[in-house]
């Protein structure tokens, strides 16, 4: 089976949408906001990529790049490129399959699968897509003490999927009301206008440095699973 066979769109077809998609796993002992992250581990990055739930097979490794370097998603073939950084106890993956406008929530699915495998880890995931009229976003935060939150919806719209409580997440990560308010996180705000990105950054910064400058990551071309391809077809191209 070729890596083209699951796709309806040819590899050179332009992608008509743009998004961002990141999932981070932080293992204990948590380095904290002032910790130092280790050098990138290429072998561990490949192992993580091969085991990730949206990936059927790693086809080839395309070297390493600075993790701060933006990877363009311009054509269909770019949707099968993922990036994984492994820096000590912190692993971060960028995978276009993490965002979906179909009925599935891959961020929720992959974060829960990782939480089952690593019950002592913190997991923070965020994915957003620019759409005409109403941008779409989805976030998932997992704390090992059991606090979780998952949200997904279109900016400004009323109908959001929400599981969990913001206050439980703030308490689990030791984030004071003053620190939350300083970045615009207000638990009383409705989901459609809540600062979800700010909450995700607060949670991640509570357990790990968030400055990625100077760090490297591995780039892989992969064959995604059939479920991931079907969802990406619906998500990245006009319907």
UniProtKB/TrEMBL annotation:
Pfam families: DUF6333. This is DUF6333 family protein. The lineage of its organism: Bacteria, Bacillati, Actinomycetota, Actinomycetes, Kitasatosporales.
């Amino acid at each position: 089976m070729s890596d083209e066979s699951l796709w309806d769109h040819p590899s050179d077809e332009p992608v008509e949408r743009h998004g961002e998609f990141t999932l981070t796993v932080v293992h204990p002992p948590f380095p904290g906001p002032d910790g130092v992250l280790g050098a990138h581990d290429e072998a561990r990055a490949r192992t993580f990529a091969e085991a990730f739930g949206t990936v059927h097979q790693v086809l080839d490794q395309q070297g390493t790049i600075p993790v701060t370097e933006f990877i363009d998603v311009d054509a269909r073939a770019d949707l099968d490129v993922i990036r994984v950084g492994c820096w000590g106890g912190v692993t971060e993956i960028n995978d276009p399959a993490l965002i979906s406008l179909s009925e599935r929530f891959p961020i929720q699915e992959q974060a829960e699968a990782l939480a089952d495998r690593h019950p002592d880890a913190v997991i923070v995931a965020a994915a957003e897509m620019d759409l005409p009229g109403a941008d779409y976003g989805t976030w998932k935060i997992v704390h090992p003490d059991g606090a979780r939150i998952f949200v997904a919806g279109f900016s400004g719209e009323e109908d959001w999927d929400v599981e969990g409580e913001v206050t439980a997440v703030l308490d689990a990560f030791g984030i004071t009301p003053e620190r939350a308010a300083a970045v615009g996180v207000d638990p009383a705000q409705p989901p459609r206008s809540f600062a979800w990105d700010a909450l995700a950054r607060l949670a991640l910064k509570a357990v790990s440095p968030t400055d990625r400058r100077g760090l490297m990551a591995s780039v892989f071309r992969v064959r995604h699973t059939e479920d991931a391809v079907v969802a990406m077809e619906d998500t990245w191209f006009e319907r």
